[in-house]
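Page 42, continued from yesterday. The earlier attempt failed because a stray header line got pasted into the input along with the sequence. Redoing it now with the clean sequence only.
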Amino acid sequence: MERTYIKDVTPGVCRVQGFVENFRNKRTMAFIVVKDITGKLQITIEKEKHPEFTEMLDKLTIHSVVTFEGEVVASEYVKMGGKEMYPTAMKIESIADALPIKDDSDIDVRMDYRWIDLRRDKNHLMLEMQTTLTNALRKFLVERNFVEIHTPKLIAAASESGSDVFEVKYFDGNAYLAQSPQFYKQMAMAAGLERIFETGPVFRAEKSYTNKHATEFTGFDLEFSYIDSFEDVMKMEEELLAYALAEVKEKHGDKIVELFGEEYALTVPTLPFPRMKLADVYAELEARYGYTVPDELKGDLTTEAERMTKQLCKDMFGHEFLFITDYSAAERAFYHMRDEQGIPQGYDLIWRGVEITTGAQREHRYDVLKAQAEEKGLAEDVKFYLEFFKYGCPPHGGFGLGIDRLTMLFLNLSIKEVQFLFRGPNRLTP
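This time it went through. C-alpha cells are written below.
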C-alpha cells in the first residue's frame, strides 16, 4: 500500500507515516498523534483487539518514527481535522531517545541539535513561508521576462571591496567566496541578457554577533537594463515585494496568526512605498524624537537611526517600508552611478526598522566607472570587472534581498532561527 500524506487522508483504508508527536498509553487504549509535513492524525488503538501491538507500544517514545495502516473514520471528538485511524498494522521505523532540548532551551543549545529543533510546527511553517516567498519572487520576475542565472561562488577578487571576504586555497593560488553576485550580474547586462535574477549563497567574513548577521545566507539578486534612473529600480522592488508578501499572506496568513499570535499578522504594503532623503530622515528624527548625530556621521544611516525609522515611517506615512536616498559617495560602492553633484543614484530599503536592500543605478560608462574605482583604491583589484564595460553596456540597475532577513522580520526571530543551518563566527556545525 502506498503512503498517504495526512492532509490527503479521507475515510477508508490507508497508510500513514511520520513522527510521534504525542503518545498516551492507557490500560485499555493507546492514543498516538502522528505528524508528517502536511498535518497531524490521531491513531486510536483498542488494545484488546490488537495484543500484537503491546510490545511495540511499551517501547514507543515521543519523536519515534512510525508507520500505520488501517481504517480512517470521521470523528466529531477529534480536533485534528475531525478524523482518526484505527490501525490494523503498526511498525516502529526508528526509536527516539529522550530529547536533549526543549522548546524553551537556550538558542545556542537548540542550534547544537538543529535537526530536532526544526521538527517544531513553527519551524515547519517558517520554511514553508520561505518556499512560498522565493517561488513568488521567481514567478513575478519570470512573467516580466527575467531569466535565472547561477553565478560562481569561487571568485578571483573580492566582489564588493577588499575586506570581509573568506579566502580559500585554490590549487596553487588563492580564491575568495563571493560576497554577492554583483559583478557577474552586471556582466550579464554587458552580455545583453537585459533582465536576470539569482537565488544563491552569499558569504560575509564579518565577525558580527548581532541577531541579524550571518557569515553565510541566501541572497535573492536581480539586475535589469534600459532604465532611466534608480527610481525604476525602486519601482521594480516595491512591486515585487508587495506581490510576494501578498502570496505569503494568502497561503500562510492564518497559520502565522495561529502559531505566532495576532501581532504577527502580515500586512500587504500599499504602493508606492514612501521615499525620503537621508538628510531629511535625520532632520525628522531630531525634530520628532530628539535624536542627533555628529555631522561627520550623517553621510550614512547609523544603527540607531535605522532602528528609529520604524516609528518614523509609521508616524509620517502609516507604512512599514521606507526608501532612503542621497547617501554620501564615501559610503556607497564605487559602481553606483552619481549625479552631477556627486550624489549616488541609489537607496536603502528599510522594513520595520531594519535595512533589507541596497539598490542603485549602476555606472555603465567605462571611463567614469574606472575613475570611481581608482578613487576607492580598487582599480587593480577589479580590473577583470572593468573589462565588462569596454565593449558596450546598457544603462542598468538592481538590488539584492536576503531571504533569511525577510523571514526574520516576518516573524520577529533572530537570524539563527530562520536559517536551515546557521553559520556565524563561532558556528560551523552541525
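Notes: Residues 114-418 form a domain with the BirA Bifunctional Protein; domain 2 fold (CATH 3.30.930.10).
Reminder to self: strip header lines before submitting.
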